[in-house]
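Raw record, unedited: Cupin domain-containing protein
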Amino acid sequence: MPGTSNDVIPATVGENLVVRIDPGPRDFAVLREVVRNGSRVGNERLDADHHLDEVIPKPWGLEYRVYVDDFIDIWNLRIEEGHATSLHVHPRKLTYLLCLGGQGVAKTLSAEYPVETGTLLRIGGGAFHSTRSLGPGPLFLVEVEAPRNKFDLIRLRDGYSRENSGYESEHRRLAELPVRPVPYLPEARMRDRSPCGGFRFEIRAGMDIFYRPRPEDLFHVPLGLTGVVTGELGILVAARGDSRRPAVDEYYLSLALATTS
């Protein structure tokens, strides 16, 4: 049973392709303590905070926006080998971590979860977590956040002395790969590929995904409001042969390996 820092949970549980990480009594106790000691979360301004559309350098690597609208925010993280994110918490939002490539481990206050291509972690609001790249090479993750609020962040422990600090303001312009508006989705912007050239991001209809499966597809993230409201986004794990049918009346953000053709 989970409960100690040495617990290791398989990346898939039975037939379920989603590993659920929900907050427990220890998370709530620690969160109460850090808030009592002065830690605060911020609020992202939807029509401001424009630096969030650029590359955000991190001591462990970098991250940048893949897709955003008024309700959902999707980021690509590159964690260099041997490095790790802080042990942190998002009290107000639900987070999904999707592994595009590499090997790593996700840690909570009480357990560890192996991370590899096709791993899908659902991290409930209030659950402390950290992710480390084990190598060889970087760990590539996509972080899906709902509802959108990049400043919903409290760092508990950090290997780079960022405890109790808010989200970074430092940024680097990615002139050759800017976020672009999506004309048919309200207030939506996106990038269509990764700077490293290894991954492709594309908005596709559920009907297209169903009738035209592709071997390079890794995940399909639904962009409708139902999942944001219910807290169950219904992300499809193509990398692991997910047999669930996409909603034919839904748009999805498809995350795929880049191809040379």
